[in-house]
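Pipeline run #58 for the internal structure catalog. This entry was flagged by the ingest filter as a single-chain record with no existing model, so it goes straight to prediction. Upstream metadata was stripped on purpose; only the residue string is passed forward. Reviewer on rotation: M.T. Logging verbosity set to normal.
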Amino acid sequence: MRSPLYDSRVWAEGLLIFYDVFKHLEQRVPHDFLPPELHRTAQFEQDLRYYLGERWLERHTPKAEVRAYLKHLQELEQENANLLLAYVYHLYMGLLSGGQILQKRRSIGRRINPFRRAAAESAPDAAVTTFEDHSIYELKQRLRKIVDDFGARLDEETRQRMLDESKKVFELNNTIIRTVEGVGSANMRIVRYIAMAIAAIILMQYVVRTQFDHEQEQTL
């Protein structure tokens, strides 16, 4: 049985469900929080043209689950636009980490050496995971610094809301991933395990930072 990872139809549909989410963030989040070098809208569109044809966007209508995701982001903007940073961090870190791994595995499946720069540049369907002018490490470090600098200025209530939305990211991602035909229960189990592990790390970091802040206040 062919793995969904190597099924171009499944891969294209996966790109399609996240296209509107990334596009929304890149249109709404200031460059201070989402630097232009991380923007992927044009790259999503390039890959989707490869898979779905030149006129794919004319036929595109976001699924109901994706529209619900976008509605939640819009509601967050009304509450506190800074909360969108939770989505920026997890989605773009996912692209810079897991997205790179998945693309390399797909390249191996097509007998393309994923570790050679030339191979990555020649792959016509890998634009969204290709960052030509910046190293992945550099981009990750910059994104972490943005989040750390912002987090240091948060009050307790906003910090808790950021934690809530960090968990909500995985819930919404799982919901739209389930709509991709060909992503079976085994793949969803992997997604859930990863989401739970990352959520646990976030929670641990939050508890440690809260305890540290409390101890600092007591010493003043």
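catalog note: The two ends are 63 Å apart (CA to CA).
catalog note: Confidence is low (pLDDT under 50) at residues 1-6, 108-122, 189-212.
status: ready for reviewer M.T.
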